[in-house]
């Protein structure tokens, strides 16, 4: 039993150290994957597209760095900026979303990358504290 608890303690410790050491690589990978998700975005029931929509609706953001990231996508040429970027679903017309100058007034202008990473970093101290207290409890 003590060896099993020691193993779990070591796994938690290694996971925390690896997460801290490789946090920049994690951010870089997240940003490149978010860019790929925007590039391949479509309206079908694709899980990457659903994830982009969920992030944009939940965090009130649009695009990777800002809303203009959508202008470089194939989806934008067809339908404009996605509805998930709209501040108000009632006031977002497809014609407005195809025009970047009009869309700026109707969509969230901040990018999702900064908001996601700052949210993760703000919650990281809570996760680290809980992991440390669980590990200490296991040692006791």
UniProtKB/TrEMBL annotation:
Bilayer disposition of the protein: Multi-pass membrane protein
Primary subcellular site in the record, as a coarse category: membrane
GO cellular component terms attached to this protein's record: plasma membrane
InterPro entries: Tetraspanin/Peripherin (IPR018499), Tetraspanin_EC2_sf (IPR008952), TSN6/7_LEL (IPR048232)
Keywords: Glycoprotein, Membrane, Signal, Transmembrane, Transmembrane helix
Residues in the signal sequence: 1-19
Superkingdom, natural source: Eukaryota
Subcellular localization, as worded in the UniProt entry: Membrane
Pfam families named in the record: Tetraspanin
Keyword Methyltransferase set for record: no
Function as written in the Swiss-Prot or TrEMBL entry: May be involved in cell proliferation and cell motility.
Family matches, as PANTHER family: TETRASPANIN, TETRASPANIN-6
Name of the molecule in the record: Tetraspanin-7
Organism: Indicator maculatus (spotted honeyguide)
């Amino acid at each position: 039993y003590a060896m099993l608890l020691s193993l779990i303690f070591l796994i938690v410790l290694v996971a925390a150290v690896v997460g801290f050491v490789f946090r920049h690589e994690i951010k870089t990978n997240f940003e490149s994957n978010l860019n790929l998700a925007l590039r391949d975005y479509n309206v079908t029931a694709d899980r990457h597209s659903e994830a982009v929509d969920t992030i944009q609706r939940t965090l009130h953001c649009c695009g990777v760095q800002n809303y203009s990231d959508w202008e470089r996508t194939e989806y934008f040429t067809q339908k404009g900026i996605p509805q998930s970027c709209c501040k108000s679903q009632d006031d977002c017309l497809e014609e407005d979303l195809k025009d970047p100058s009009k869309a700026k007034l109707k969509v969230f202008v901040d990018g999702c990358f900064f908001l996601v990473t700052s949210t993760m970093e703000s919650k990281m101290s809570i996760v680290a504290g809980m992991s440390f207290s669980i590990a200490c409890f296991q040692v006791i």
